[in-house]
Design goal:
Layout: E1 3-4, E2 12-13, E3 31-34, E4 37-39, H1 42-52, E5 59-65, E6 71-78, E7 81-88, H2 94-101
Parallel strand pairs: 1-2
Antiparallel strand pairs: 3-4, 5-6, 6-7
Length: about 110
């Protein structure tokens, strides 16, 4: 969790140090672990997003987990509420499930 300025809740974050972000009083960022990986503390992220949900715009995003790509997590903010679902698939089937859930991604997840 980062805040512009002194960062009462987390490390100091200076907007000029990174890619420009839209104006906000609080940012949630996961720690990069490589070119295509991030470390995420899901319990903390879920608590933060649940408490902030009434202040956030509707959004939906997905995370494919494990090196075998067999877990698909679905996150959705709608009408001020957070919804989270975990889907367990056969090995390397998370991308196929994601394309079923979001047809607009068909052929774009290679």
């Amino acid at each position: 969790m980062f805040e512009p300025g002194s960062g009462r809740r987390g490390p100091r974050f200076n907007l000029s140090d990174s890619t420009p972000l839209p104006p906000a009083s609080l940012y949630l960022e996961f720690m990069p672990a490589g070119a295509d990986m991030v470390y995420a503390q899901y319990a903390l992220a879920q608590r933060i997003l649940e408490s902030a949900a009434p202040l956030l715009e509707d959004a939906r995003w997905y995370a494919i987990l494990t090196q075998c790509e067999d877990i698909l997590d679905c996150w959705e903010l709608t009408a001020g509420r957070l919804r989270y679902e975990r889907h367990l698939t056969e090995e390397e089937q998370a991308r196929e499930l994601l394309q079923q859930l979001e047809p607009s991604l068909r052929g774009r997840l290679d």
